[in-house]
Amino acid sequence: MSLRQKAISGVKWNSVQMAASQVLSFCTTMVLARILSPSDFGLLGMIMIVINFGFNFSSLGMSNAIVQRKDVPEEHLSTFFWLNNIIGLIIFLIIQVIRYPVAWYFQEPLIAHYLMYSACIFLLIPSTQLFHTLLIKEMRFKPLAIIDISITVIYSISAIILALLNCGVLSIVFGQIICNVFYVFFCFIYFRKTWLPKFYFRFSEVKSYLRFGAFQMGDRIIGYLSANVDNLIIGRFLGAEALGFYALAYNLITIPLTKINPIILNVAFPMFSKIQDDQEKVRYGYCQMTRFIAFITFPILTGLAVVAPLFIPIAYGDQWSTAIPILQILCMVGLLRTVCAPYNSLLLSKGRADIGFYISIFYLISCTITLMIFRAWGIIGIAFGVLCVQASLDIIIFYNVARIGKINFLQIVSVLTKLFTCTLLMALMTYLTRIFLHELNIYTLLAIVVGVGVITYSASCYLVEKKIFKEVLSLIKNR
Question: Pfam families annotated for this entry (predicted)?
Fold first, then answer.
C-alpha cells in the first residue's frame, strides 16, 4: 500500500473511530449530567488535572521519537515497554503521596480519597502505550479504531451503571479503570502473533531517543499546565461548582479539537515524517490539512455558539444554563486553535520539538498572568482571558510555521477565506432564524436552526468551494 493510500485509509478509519466514540461519549455525558451535579463534574475536573498531568511523564515523551525514527530495533521496543511500566508505577506512588496537598490546594477533602483510586490507571496505561505507538507508526489505523471504539463502549456502560448505583464521582473514575483493563487485554490479543515484549532492558541503548523525547515531554508538561491554568485558578478561587460549569463548556468546544481534528492529525505526523525532506510536499500537505480541519470545525464551533441557548438546556438540563455564555466565548477560542492545528505535527516531523516547548512556556506564563487578572470577573472573565491569550499565541505559531515549514500566513489565509465566508453566512442565517422563531417550542426551534445552518453552509460551500466536496467524497470512497 502506497503512502497516499495509507494516509487515505488512516483518515477513513480515524473518521469511523471519531464518529462512533464521539457519539458514545456525548450520549454518556448527557446521561451522567442528569444524574450527577455540576459540583461532581467540578470535582472530577480537579482529579483529572492531576491524572492527566501524570500522563505527560508516562513515556518520557519517547513515543513520538519512535514514530519519527525510520527503524527501531526490537530490543529497543522491549526496553521502552518495561521503562513505561516502571515510570507508571513511580507516577502511581507519587500521586498517593501528593493527594493530600492537592486536596488542600483545592480546599476539597474528598479529592484525596478519589485520587487514591484514580491513580490506579497508571498501573494499566503504560502497558498499552507502546502498542498504540506501533499502530500509529505503521499507520495501521483500522485495528486502532476498533480497539478505541470497544473501550469507549465499555467505559460508557460501566460509568452509567455505577452512576445509577449512586457512586457519584467514582462512577467515572471506576469506569475509566475498567475500560483500561480491557484496553490492555485487547492490545495483547492483537499483537500476540506479531510482537510481544521480551524480558530485555538496556536503558543505555535508548538514550539517543531522550533528547527528542525530553523536549517533547517538556512541551507536553508545559503545554498541559498552560492548558489547565484556567482550571487550577477556577478550582482554587471560584470553587467546584464554577469549575463544573466551565469544564462542561470547555469540553464541548474541545470536541472538534480532540475528536475530529485527530482524524487528520493522527495521520499528519507519520506522513510528514516520511516526506520531511520534500519541502513542497510538506507545504502542500500542511495547507490541505488546515483546509480539511477548517471545513469541518468552522461550522461546528460557530453553530454551537449560536445554538448554545437552546442546546445546553435540552442536552444537559436547565441546571447547566450558567455554562451558555462561557461556551459562546470558548467557541471563539476553538476557532483560533483550529487554524493552527497541524503546526505541532509539522515541528515534530522536522525534529524541532524544542520550538513547541518554548511556545508552551510562553503560553503558560502569559496565560497565568492574564487569568490571575481576569479572575476578578468570574468564570466569564476567565473565558475571555483565555481568548486573548490564544489570539497572541496564534501569531507566534504562524511565525514559526513560516520559518520552519516555509509556509507563510497568506498561503494559509488563501485556503481558508472561502470557508470562513461560508461560515459567517451560516452564522448570520442561524442567528436570524433563532431570533425570528423564538416563540416556537425549544426542541422544534433547535431542529430548525440546525437544519438552516446545515443547508446554508453546504449550499454556500458547494457554490464557492466545490473542490473540497470532491476531495471529501474521495476520502470516503477510497481506502
Answer: Polysacc_synt_3
